[in-house]
UniProtKB/TrEMBL annotation:
SUPFAM superfamilies: Calcium-dependent phosphotriesterase. Belongs to the SMP-30/CGR1 family. Keywords: Hydrolase. PANTHER family: LACTONASE DRP35 (PTHR47572:SF4), LIPOPROTEIN-RELATED (PTHR47572). It comes from the Bacteria. It comes from Pseudolysinimonas kribbensis. This is Gluconolactonase. InterPro entries: 6-blade_b-propeller_TolB-like, SGL, SMP-30/CGR1_Lactonase.
């Protein structure tokens, strides 16, 4: 769906999106998105969708879930199995061909795909701190012993180090970081959910309940101070007193 801020109009943007999930902008301002159904990371330019990466070591990806683009243009994304589970709710039934659920870094210019985190069961949302020195990654438990948590990692070159867990995740999914480095994360517990605000060390500063389960958040609006929250049946807008962390300068 596509919602127009000025008119309040909602229209169908794509009627066959193949279970598109996390989306972001690359350095040229084009949409980079994750497709559960096509099991790939792809680019959407005015409705024309092309593949960016769909395999690791000759094997298909699971179902890329969320994505961020770093200031050097590298694409970082999570690859849990939600889109290939037998119930087919979020994709099409399939198998995990490379045998894991990794967080990857992809360099388009060279085609180099590198697994940077390999020990999370279901990596989900991810985001960088404003200076890209820290990468935050949410893990959504599998209900079979694995639990929900958010880890922070120091970014070291093209990889990460020093993992540590933050806060009370409460089934954190997607999140964004503001200009002061605070983490704005979706949360869900039972039938309810909303957005929680954490300090960089994971200390909870605020929580807003929207009354239904939530999945993702993004800053927007003319001044970048509006937080948009996707939930089970609705899109919510929350005016904040901050703005999104600045994006890398566009190419050209």
């Amino acid at each position: 769906m596509q919602w127009h801020r000025e008119t309040g109009e909602t229209i169908v943007y794509d009627d066959a999106p193949e279970f598109t999930n996390g989306r972001t902008l690359d350095l040229a301002g084009q949409v980079v998105q994750c497709s559960h159904g096509r099991r790939r990371v792809e680019r959407d330019v005015d409705g024309v969708v092309t593949s960016i990466v769909d395999a690791f070591d000759g094997r298909r990806l699971n179902s890329p879930n969320d994505v961020v683009v770093a200031s050097d243009g590298a694409i970082w994304f999570t690859d849990p199995p939600y889109g290939i589970q037998p119930d087919e709710i979020e994709g099409h039934a399939g198998v995990q061909e490379y045998g894991g659920c990794f967080v990857f870094r992809f360099v388009e210019a060279t085609g180099e795909l590198t697994p940077v985190i390999t020990d999370m069961v279901r990596p989900n949302g991810l985001a960088f701190s404003p200076d890209e020195s820290v990468l935050y990654v949410a893990n959504t438990g599998d209900g079979q012993g694995d639990r929900d948590y958010v880890r922070a990692f120091d970014v070291v070159g093209a990889g990460v180090a020093n993992p540590r867990e933050l806060g009370d995740p409460s089934a954190a999914d997607g999140f964004r970081v503001d200009v002061e480095g605070r983490i704005w994360t979706s949360w869900s517990r039972g039938p309810s959910g909303g957005v929680a605000v954490w300090a960089p060390d994971g200390t909870e500063l605020a929580r807003v309940d929207v009354g239904e389960r939530t999945a993702n958040v993004a800053f927007g609006g003319p001044d970048g101070d509006e937080l948009y929250i996707t939930a089970s049946t609705s899109l919510y807008r929350l005016r904040t007193t901050t703005t999104a962390a600045p994006r890398p300068e566009p190419l050209g």
